[in-house]
Amino acid sequence: MTAALTDSRLFPAVAALNAELGTESVTTTAAVLDNTVRTSLLTVASSMTGTLADGTYAGQRKRVVCVAATSTPAYTLTVNTPETTAGLACASTFIFNTVGQAVDFFWTGSKWRAERVQRAGATTVVVGTTVLTGLNLNLQYDLSVTGTVSSTTTKGLPNGSSPGERIVLTNTVAASTPIGDISGTYTNLLGAAATSIGAIGVAATASAVGDSAILEWDGSAWVCMWLSGVTFS
Predict the structure, then answer these.
(1) Whole-angstrom Cα distance, residue 129 to residue 82?
(2) 198 φ, ψ to 5°?
(3) Are strands 222-228 and 193-200 parallel, antiparallel or unpaired?
(4) With 0-12 CB in 10 A as exposed, 13-18 as middle and 19+ as buried, what is 67?
(5) How far apart are CA 181 and CA 127, in angstroms?
(6) Would you state the torsion angle of the CA atoms of residues 41, 45, 49, 52, taken in this order, to the nearest 10 degrees?
(7) How far is the C-alpha of 33 from the C-alpha of 54, rounded, in Å?
(8) Per-residue pLDDT of the chain (233 residues; tens, 9 = 90+)
(9) Residues 6+ apart with CB under 8 A from 149
(10) Which CATH architecture has domain 10-118?
């Protein structure tokens, strides 16, 4: 029996079993996640970084999940080789800042594809100021609009990485005759393509808030599921 267990022909099967069942705890920065285990549990304290290296066999799955977050948490995960196929494109960077955020990756043999993205928590977005690159795991974006402001390029809304992701945009601060807009890749309620959500915070008084939109990623664009007060263009 001992000889059979050490047979080199069993090594791939044992490695695959470890990759499906194993878990690691990540508590330090600048770490390469262990691809010999299935799940990486992130304990995020302040600013941290990590890397997801290439998979080792086609069909390999990797789950990365935030289990603790303290001290203005921000764990930036860089994906070495993300999927680029249209409709399935995966972000090259994910920022974990809230407990419960998770990404389930699938190695196609040459690239990491995001099979499922679990969003959680809210992030404050000062329209026209906050850089949103990598802030793609929050469920809610709380928008602060002061005066006439626009979020474009790196300040625009990041694309999703897995069809079915949902987010909420909501205006929580509106001041100084607010008129805000955020660029992105959108589809409006009529099914037409759009590149901006605008009229955020527009109201007769500067104290009015509540403009909102619920969006779902379809693989190519953020599709508007519901809106109140905002416009697409």
Answers:
(1) 28
(2) -130, -170
(3) unpaired
(4) middle
(5) 7
(6) 10
(7) 10
(8) 344 344 445 545 555 555 567 999 999 999 999 999 999 999 999 999 999 999 999 999 999 999 999 999 999 999 999 999 999 999 999 999 999 999 999 999 999 999 999 999 999 999 999 999 999 999 999 999 999 999 999 999 999 999 999 999 999 998 888 889 999 999 999 999 999 998 888 765 545 688 899 999 999 999 999 999 899 99
(9) 127, 128, 129, 178, 179, 180, 181
(10) Sandwich (2.60)
The span from the CA of 77 to the CA of 17, in Å, is 25
Q: Which residue has the tokens 């203005």?
A: 72
Going by C-alpha positions, the residue among 98, 192, 198, 193 that lies closest to residue 156 is: 198
Return the domain boundaries, the chain: 10-118, 122-232
Query: What phi and psi values does residue 75 have, to the nearest 5 degrees?
Result: -100, 110
Residue 44 neighbours by CB under 8 Å, 6+ apart:
66, 68, 69, 70, 73, 74, 75, 96, 97
Structure tokens that stand for 217 in this block = 């990623």
Residue 17 to residues 20, 52, 60, Cα–Cα distance (Å): 5, 19, 11
- The encoded tokens of residue 44 equal 């995020």
Residue 127 corresponds to which amino acid?
V
